[in-house]
Design goal:
Structural class: alpha/beta
Family: Belongs to the short-chain dehydrogenases/reductases (SDR) family.
CATH topology of the largest domain: Rossmann fold
Number of domains: 2
Oligomer: single chain
GO molecular function: oxidoreductase activity
EC number: 1.1.1.-
CATH class of the largest domain: Alpha Beta
Largest sheet: 7 strands, parallel
Number of helices: 8
Number of strands: 7
Strand content: 15-25%
Keywords: Oxidoreductase
Helix content: 40-55%
Strand order of the largest sheet: 3-2-1-4-5-6-7
Radius of gyration: 17 Å
Enzyme class: oxidoreductase
Order of helices and strands: EHEHEHEHEHEHHHE
Length: 253
């Protein structure tokens, strides 16, 4: 039997590399999937690439309660109650020291990366089946400090608190809640951070990041997706309230 047979999943940030790759694995494992993102063009492209009748999309700004309630209700209308919520949407902000960081960018990062996660849990949890799973995307930046990424680091620490609180509150329903903490992933977000750190020298910045990882490379989206599938499946029934690190040894140093 497939790991997610007949389960209903919502994936926010569904048009990004991790969201899209996870959706592909979810579908292969038998799930019905609703992808959520703010960019309808990318969502349509993602649906075309996935080419599966068990996936749909909803355009939403995860930082707005009315949009979050709408995507949750759409998943229920399409597929019934929710079994898996991959609360994944996030943005990187800019690369600047705290003293130079634009307040409006800080506010936007917190709105998407923290309020968006909080709202997602708030509206999805009441619609979830007993024994379900919430997986929240944090980062190694949610476990350590990183210079010049103050808003992002702050947001990724904050979601650990949301996760732990939700895990306790959801335990009577046997709903598991965990965060995942990837090292740098080989995707658009890291290209943005690399270029933001040193315009025109992104490759050099990548090499510096890689040198800080014992396995000496970035993660690939498929590696993150495999961890999410495990946490979403019944194979992780006794795992809740945890910070699942997938970082090539970066935090071990």
């Amino acid at each position: 039997m497939k790991q997610l047979e007949n389960k209903v999943a919502i994936i926010t940030g569904g048009a990004g590399s991790i969201g899209k790759t996870t959706a592909k694995l979810f579908l292969e494992e038998g799930a019905k999937v609703l992808l959520v993102d703010i960019d309808e063009v990318l969502l349509k492209s993602t649906l075309n690439d996935l080419c599966n009748s068990n996936v749909a999309y909803c355009v939403a700004d995860v930082s707005k309660a009315v949009d979050v309630e709408r995507y949750v209700n759409k998943a229920v209308q399409l597929y019934g109650n929710i079994d898996v919520f991959f609360n994944n949407a996030g943005i990187e902000g800019v690369v600047k020291p705290i003293i130079d960081y634009p307040e409006e960018v800080f506010d936007k990062v917190i709105a998407v990366n923290v309020k968006g996660i909080w709202l997602g849990n708030k509206y999805a949890l009441p619609k979830m089946n007993k024994g379900g799973s919430i997986v929240i995307t944090s980062s190694v930046a949610g476990l350590v400090g990183l210079a010049n990424l103050g808003a992002y680091v702050t947001s990724k620490h904050a979601v650990v608190g949301i996760m732990r609180t939700t895990a306790i509150e959801a335990a009577p329903l046997k709903i598991r809640v965990n965060t995942i903490h990837p090292a740098p992933v080989n995707n658009r977000m890291m290209r943005s951070i690399e270029e933001g750190a040193s315009a025109g020298h992104g490759k050099d910045v990548q090499k510096q990041f890689e040198a800080a990882i014992p396995l000496n490379r970035y993660a690939e989206p498929i590696e993150i997706a495999r961890l999410v599938v495990f946490l979403a499946s019944d194979n992780s029934q006794y795992i809740t309230g945890t910070t699942q690190v997938i970082d090539g040894g970066m935090c071990a140093q």
